[in-house]
Structures are given as structure tokens and as C-alpha cells.
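User: quick one, fold this
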Amino acid sequence: MGTRITRTALPVIAVLSLTGSPMEMAVLASLSYGPGVLVGLLAGGWVDRSRKREILVGADLVRALAVATVPLAAWLGRLEVVQVYVVAVVVGGATALFQIADVALLPRLVPPERLVEGNAKLAATESVAEVTGPALAGVLIQALGAPLAVLLDAASYVWSALFLRSLRHQEKPGGGGEGTSVLRDLAVGARATLGHPVVGLLVAATGTTMFCAGAFAALYMLYALRTLGLQASTVGVIIGVGGVGALGGTALARALPSRLGLGPTLVSSLLVYQVAGLLIPLAGLPSVPRALAPWLLVAHQLVGDAFFMVFFVLATSLRQTLLPRELLGRGNATLQIVTGSLLPLGALAAGSVAGSLGLRETLLAGALLGLTGPALLAASKAVRTAIEPR
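Assistant:
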């Protein structure tokens, strides 16, 4: 929930308190995700050879300190866009490290036949946070101002660190003995993931999706506040509705593969997610009544988040099953490098063309380009015939 507050508040600070040009919003979005590249380059092998719980706790504490500087600077009257950028970088890097260790730790806590269930339950907690976090963020921003609202996120990271410290699992460090240098770790991780006939395509489709998601990350808040004229509290509620869809998606992720098959579910869920993205630029059409626009955004959150969650849970579980356990840190680091590169590139590309092309037209182009992701999966027989992890 705390993370959703900062994710909502930083763009609001940029739009309402600072300059908030399309390029500045693109830079902010890219700095939030770009550090994943550096972390992926350096940390994969280290995660494989280290105690993952300590890494998770450390990442939480770093994020707590970083976001706490925002209300402090606002109280001192010194909050500037440069500091917002720095906070985005630090939080983005620590989040990428957390995610690499998180995915590598789960298969050590639950048996292989329960990985889909485990990932679905973790995703369900994220969905509950998505339901309440953005809506709470909108209300807090409206009542307290964005900088002060971020203070609750700092407290939530400390709370998370305390919870993680209570894990009773006794983890032994080590594993992944092949790589003892950064370059060797990168080679091992890339070979294991990109060279795999199924995992490699999942990474490629995810990377394409993240490139287009970068455009939405850069422009969504600006589009909703300025083009559609919505209030920050309204946007928070709309984003929170996505959590309801995502929560439903965690249930669908466990039900659809038994009916459609894992491969067809992966393809169709990513396709529905990308098609739902078209509702965002549709909301800004001159012919669309102003009162209907927020409901189109609500529909996008419900449908899009539900089916992206289906894809995410199944793709993560399949990756955890197909890759050797001792290589999961480096494998997930490779994914972080790909997504951490393409998402900020998509944000910067959107920011650079939005000024001349227009916000709505840029978002439309991003949604159409996103259709290449499910097309990649549909073209692969190895993906179409993939079976559910057991």
C-alpha cells in the first residue's frame, strides 16, 4: 500500500508542484525503472550466492530512507525536481534488487507443485494493495499534499523489513558456483534465459510489453490530470480499481490453464491486456462524452490488470520451474536488465514524441505496438504447447 502512495505521489508532485512537462515526466518514469538494468548487471550472481532474506530487508530499509527525504525537503522548502529524480533512482534500484531476490527465494520456501499457488497468493496481496493504495494515495494527497503522503510509504518499508526478519526459514548461502565474476554471471544468466526456447520468448514478450508500458508510465498521470481534467483523488480511485481486476486475475491464473492449457492462456491473457490498453486513448477522443472518459479508464484497469496478472503469475511460475534453482537469481537479473532497459526507453520515446504528436496519439501508438508481445508468443509452438508447472 505504501509503495502505491509513492508511485502515485511522485508524478503528482512533478505535475502539480514542479514543471511537469512531458519530457520531465518521461525522465521521472525512466529513472524509476532504469536502475533495474544496473542492478541486473551486477547483482544476479551475488543474489544466488547470498542469503536472500537479508537482501530483501536491506532493500526495504534503503527505500524507507530514500522516500523519507521527500517530506523532509518539502518541510524545509527545498523540494526540487532533481531530488524527486534521485529518490526515483534509489527506490527503483532497491526495488529491482528486491524483485530479483524475491523470485529466487520463493522456490526455496514452497514445493514445485505449489509454485503457481504461491505466486498467485503473493500477487493477490499485491492486488489488495492496488485496490486500496492508489485510492488512499489520492485522498491523502488531496488532504495532506503529496510530499507528506509519501511519509507513510517510508513507514511501510520499515514495517515490511520487520515482517521479513521474522521468516523462520534457515537459508544457506551459496549456489551457482559457475559464476564468480560479474561478466561470468551475466553470461550464465543470459545463456540460461535467452537461450531457453520458452523462457527466452517469455522474456522477449515481456520486454516488448514493458517498452509500451513505459509510455503509459510516463504519460498516464499527465494525460489523466491535464487532458481528461480529472482530480488527483479520482485518478487514485481509478488506479485502485486495477487492484480489483488484478485480484480477480490471481484466481483466473489458477483456473484458466486447466481449461485452455498453459500455452494458450499465456498468449490470450497478454493479448487481452494489450487490447484493453486501447481504452486509454479512446477516453480522450473528442467524440467521447467527458463523463464517460473515467469509466473507460476504469474498464481498462479492471480488464487489463486482471489479464496481465494472469500472464505474470504463469510466466513467473514457468520460469521458476524451467530454470535451475541455483540460477534463478541470475535468470531474474537478465529479465531485470531487459525490462529495466526497455521500460525507460519506452518512457523516453513517448516523452520525446508526445509534445509534437500529442498525448492521446502517443498512447494509442504504444497500445498498438504492444500487440507484438502476444504475437511473438503465438508464433512459437514451444510456448503454445507449454504445460502447467508441476
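User: anything notable?
Assistant: The CA atoms of residues 111 and 118 lie 9 Å apart.
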